[in-house]
Batch of 3 targets.
Target 1
Amino acid sequence: MNAANVQIGEWLGVKAPATDAEILGIVERQLAPAVIKRLIALGLERTEVDAIIIPQRTLQHRRSRREKLTVEESDRVLRAIRVLARTEAVYGSRERALEWLRRKNPRLDGRTPLLLLKTDTGSRMVEELLVEIDEGMFV
């Protein structure tokens, strides 16, 4: 089990997933709406959660009906956590990681890495950029 998976487990409040299959299982079982509070506690702002994971109104609707997040929303939560963990590892602190995620990046057509997390393709672009930064190719 790698350090990122341990962190994912801690941040979600679940047993640390040992494999990608276990991460997939977490997504497929769908996360509880309470996970959104955990994201905000990690430093994401409510407006960022609205933009990349679930709008506030939809979240309130889910809570009132005691429904879980959808598979797609749960996947976006995992994506955001995975990228935040990776960014924190590259930059050495949560504060610096969030600063980088919120700054427009010319390598991402002037968009912020955080807003690209809404889609799988955008997330992969951000993760590839983080690998390049970590390997010293770009800053």
Note: The chain has one domain: 3-134.
Target 2
Amino acid sequence: MLYIGLVFAGILAWTISTLTAGGAAMLVIPVLGVLLGVELVAPILSVATVMANPARALMFRKFIRMDVIRWLLPGSLFGAIFGSWLLSRSNPIWIQLLLGIFLGSIMLQYRWGKSGRSFAVPGWWFLPIGIVVASLSALTGATGPVLNPFLLNYGLIKEDMIGTKSFNSLFMQLTKVGAYISLGIMSQQAWLAGLALGSGAIFGAYLAKQQLLKISPAQFRMGVLMMMTISGIVMLVDALRRLLSVG
């Protein structure tokens, strides 16, 4: 029953995240943490994302922005390895807490959706951004929405954002899984749970594609901002819960 439930969780989470350019992992982090343990969250999510992203990248291959990828991908690959190494030697709760605060304040940063851009983003910024976001992703299991403010401020929207993020994330997550294996972090349960979640994720991405075409750029942008805010709140609550349980 656990794995069947994870399939349906993957369908729901990745349908929503495809329509809002990320946030699927944020929606399932609390569930995975409670059912399978915090230490398995990042490996499970990496396996599921490796399964889902080829489908999304293929669906939106015409919209992949290589001007972003040429900077973002090298940083993401380095950050995935570095963050995986840190995961085996650190406690990511405090990082998750800070990320929750940052994402939870996104609507304020964008003046409740009224502001078009909150800051300018040159293309080369995506190299250090990729390092930081991938490192944090390896530590906490999910930081997809952290990248969204930078992509929005660079000018990406809708299919451009989803195609570019999916292409980059595919190689980043493959690198993370390889690093997890070499560091002995992966387990049989992580593989099985990740495969179940990923199976649902593929179907969820397919369901969302046709709906995305019907959404206007303004509606998509507001959905992205709302998902970032919700993801931040979820991360914040989960981090606080874990801190209180430890105390």
Note: The longest helix spans residues 217-246.
Target 3
Amino acid sequence: MNYWLIKSEPFKYSWDEMLKDDTTYWDGVRSYAARIFLNEMKVGDLCLFYHSNEGKEIVGITKVVKGSYQDPTTDDERWVAVDVKAVKSLERSVSLKELKADAILKDMRFVRQSRLSVAPVSKKEFDKILKISETSLK
């Protein structure tokens, strides 16, 4: 299993909307690096859901339920989407400030390249975020 961080501006698509929808397609990614990561996502991978611009915090966890396919919002075959399903809200959100201050998390790809809308997360980073957020997947 792999781990990822996906981010969305809450006014465009919020965690509350994700919970309401239960499952959605993750589309509109127009970064070449992020596209590579979308193509690497596999069914069962877990994703941290990050609110960008407003809040700047990780608020929930989703699971990939369908691997990459043609992004339905464009005819350009270069762009892809994946389907994700809400798993659970974090018990306590984890802010960007906390990520930058933590010895393990400050070197996360997302922290170093904050413009990425999709980024890989190591198992160690994922587990640390769960610990900080007081969240269990059990």
Note: The chain has one domain: 3-132.
